[in-house]
Amino acid sequence: MFELLFPFFLLFLLFLVLSIIWRVNARKYISSGTVASAYDAWTQDKLLERLWGEHIHLGFYPLEKKNIDFRKAKVQFVHELVKWTGLDTLPKGSRILDVGCGIGGSSRILAKYYGFNVTGITISPAQVKRARELTPRGLNCKFQVMDAMDLKFEDGTFDAVWSVEAGAHMIDKNRFADEMLRTLRPGGYLALADWNSRDLKEYPPSFFEKLVLKQLLEQWVHPNFISINEFSNILRNNKNSAGRVISENWNSFTNPSWYDSIIEGIRRPLAIMSLGPFAIVKSIREVPTILLMNWAFRKGLMEFGVYKCRG
Predict the structure, then answer these.
(1) pTM flag (> 0.85)
(2) 122: pLDDT strictly greater than 90
(3) How far apart are CA 218 and CA 157, in angstroms?
(4) Coil, strand, or helix at residue 32?
């Protein structure tokens, strides 16, 4: 009897240990300062960069192609969003603001491949430092520490505003949208991608879905999620928007990223081991949340929203 129950006992023990780790090390959103601290830690331990390269965001996987390299898919995502939003029609030298720039991966692509003059902002000082280190001299990229909900730029400063997977960290989505559109010149382009929930008012979550959402919020410093339609309406009703907002759900193009983000640890074990034994624990700690993200996006509880509009 004990032999039959032993595997279940081990699973229970593992679940208990992970639950304790999650609770002790939960990254609950308290203020913008907790977002900065979390990204400082992720940047300084170098684990994400070693595994995922210069891009923290998800990748783009064309439906007709299989077995695309994870890092190449991330680069492809930038080019696909540029094309879909029309940024590729802007002339070289156009001023672009990258809101939530991370360690500058997207900013460098926008500057190198499209000839844009890019300003990247993030609330994390460690990310700004690393972005500057990774940016070749002569590339038109500069990086600053700045809160996305309090942009220190004049109205109409930029020809385009770009933001990928930053909005989920903003407690005030209206303010987030207002600041981006305020700094966009009339006729300028907004190109945005973000993690959204489905419409939870129209389709209330089940008890289990509530538990999943709670975990996703508390582990990666998210104050709240809103639906694609909700954020589209925020953009559409903003005084600085021309009113026409187009949005899509790119779940089918981005979902393979979740499994690939785990598989990268198997493909590159030395990338983790070279950072010391604690890095192994930290990487394992993220796996359950990644699996929950994968489940939530596959089931439609979460949606990957992309948005474009003109100032």
Answers:
(1) yes
(2) yes
(3) 35
(4) helix
Least reliable range by pLDDT among 5-19, 92-106, 220-234, 293-307: 5-19
Nearest to 59 by CA among 105, 114, 119: 105
Q: Measured between alpha carbons, how far is 52 from 36 in angstroms, rounded to an integer? A: 20
Whether the Cβ atoms of residue 311 and residue 245 lie closer than 8 Å to each other: no
Where does 66-221 show beta strands of DSSP type E? 95-99, 117-122, 141-145, 158-164, 184-197
Residues 47-61: pLDDT tens digits? 889 889 999 999 999
pLDDT at 238: 95
**Residue 113: what residue type?**
Y
- From 52, 97, 56, 59, select the one nearest 78 (Cα to Cα): 59
Residue carrying structure tokens 């209330």: 204
Give the tens place of pLDDT for each residue, 11-36.
545 544 555 444 445 689 999 999 99
| Residue 137, burial from CB neighbour count under 10 angstroms (0-12, 13-18, 19+) | exposed
What pLDDT shows up at residue 269? 79
Place of tokens 């010149």: 185
Q: Please give the domain boundaries of the chain with CATH numbers for all domains.
A: 38-310 (3.40.50.150)
Query: What sign does the dihedral 181-183-186-191 (CA atoms) show?
Result: negative
Cα–Cα distance between 259 and 279 in angstroms, integer?
A: 19
Question: ∠ CA(128), CA(37), CA(133), 5° rounding?
Answer: 20
Alpha carbons 248 and 65: distance in angstroms, whole number: 20
Q: Position of tokens 């990338």? A: 271
Question: What DSSP character marks residue 247?
Answer: E
